[in-house]
Amino acid sequence: xxxxxxxxxxxxxxxxxxxxxxxxxxxxxxxxxxxxxxxxxxxxxxxxxxxxxxxxxxxxxxxxxxxxxxxxxxxxxxxxxxxxxxxxxxxxxxxxxxxxxxxxxxxxxxxxxxxxxxxxxxxxxxxxxxxxxxxxxxxxxxxxxxxxxxxxxxxxxxxxxxxxxxxxxxxxxxxxxxxxxxxxxxxxxxxxxxxxxxxxxxxxxxx
Length: 207
What we know:
Blueprint: H1 8-27, H2 33-53, H3 57-78, H4 85-101, H5 109-123, H6 127-147, H7 151-181, H8 191-206
Helix pairs in contact: 1-2, 1-7, 2-3, 3-4, 3-5, 4-5, 5-6, 6-7
């Protein structure tokens, strides 16, 4: 990862990264879209500050735009409205433009892909897709943090990735249980219904 200089700004940036990662991790375990948006909104606010302290301006502006995106999508979800296609296009273009404007090194491109990936994940309504997109996004941010020498940021993002994977497994386990419980075996039919069925069959045989 190269030499790390533990300046005051660097130390503060690492503490901020821990707070940001914690907030984003919480978003992965809530089921309501508005709560997911709220925690990701707060998380990206801290991530923006984290990258700014590291002079990683591409990451800072992408995380900053993510705050505006989170506010828009949060109020849409709170009002029961689905985010329209215009919001998806506008925010995606903002991430592309912001990434190009702050471009300094080749790996700054990772932030553009991460921003667009999360934008679509939050725009659509599938919690399952959001979880998978979060995993993909974590790989992009881990690579970015490694290349910008954010030690604790990298560690925290790896922890977030592990939490996301655990949450993904629990999500499918829960779905499997719900599907299994929705199937009612014949032997568990109410006794009255079973007796009525037997009586009907006996009468049919007698005739």
